[in-house]
What we know:
The complex is a heterotrimer. Chain B is mostly helical. Chain B is built from three helices and no strands. Chain B has a single domain (2-84), classed as Helix Hairpins. The N and C termini of chain C lie far apart (57 Å). Residues 104-112 of chain C have low confidence and may be disordered.
Amino acid sequence: MRRLLPHPLLTVTLAILWLLLVNQLSAGHVVLGALLGWLIxxxxxxxxxxxxxxxxxxxxxxxxxxxxxxIVRGSFQVAALILRGPTRLRPAFIQVPLxxxxxxxxxxxxxxxxxxxxxxxxxxxxxxxxxIVHTLDTGxxxxxxxxxxxxxxxxxxxxxxxxx
Amino acid sequence: MLTTVIPIAFALVSLAFLLSFWxxxxxxxAPDRILALDTLYINTxxxxxxxxxxxxxxxxxxxxxxxxxxxxxxxxALCKYLLRGDIIE
Amino acid sequence: xxxxxLSILIxxxxxxxxxxxxxxxRLQDFYTRLHGPTKATTLGVGCLLIASALYxxxxxxxxxLHEVLVTLFLFITAPVSAHLLAKAALHLKLKxxxxxxxxxxxxxxxxx
Lengths: 164, 89, 112
């Protein structure tokens, strides 16, 4: 079973992507999408040996809602900062210590940080324990680190790594 | 309503084009130019989507999708080159 | 009503796209410039794409959802390219308004 269907989640995602791409919902395309969704993970399974497990689907939904809200909030904030002028910015590099260990969770956290208010993730240390983040306008760096850890890292840990 | 909004949107996106283009010429460093190119890709995408709405034709969607993909791959390749001095290891 | 919603979406999208590029042209060092295109422009194009999806769903029969695909793609790729660009800039040690991160053992500025 594991050999034949290595990544069930990826299969479903690919099938949905195929339906979106052809932009119509007919029986033929559902079958074709399912076939592609099976074939691609099967043929490329050597590239992703680890299995993705979502432990808390509800937490994932809540995380997505927070994420979408923060994208909109972040864009408005950055737009306001750009319009206000470059002289009053207080850019800084801050270091965020990570408790996440899996690749997927770390990359999701980095992507989230880049899309949300005033921060872009810039460097992951070699030992994968610190993420360097560039911020556009920081008042209190320690508060920002705490916010990132509470708002994004904790739910990601819960969703992908479970509590220890 | 839509007929007045779309020309304004065209003007704004074209201005965005000019600003990005200015950054592309001015530099001063390679990452700045790559960032300007990346922004130009995204602006092109916006322009194509607007054109699709303006002309009422869905055919521009495929072009927009392709530009999004090519732009991403191009940016990544250039960054890799800056980081390693090589694209394919 | 739908017309109004479409107009608002298109205008918001265009304004954000413009502000993103304005940030690119106006801000003073590479790292702050990076913020404009990654956030404002991505949301701007996202708005335009949603407008397009709405427009074609109303004009033709059947829902047109393939624009969602491009939006999704952009939201996944924008932070990745921003991260790599920042990494390349740190690697090249570009000038920065902010004090650069400590170049100790945990943040080797070189390659592997």
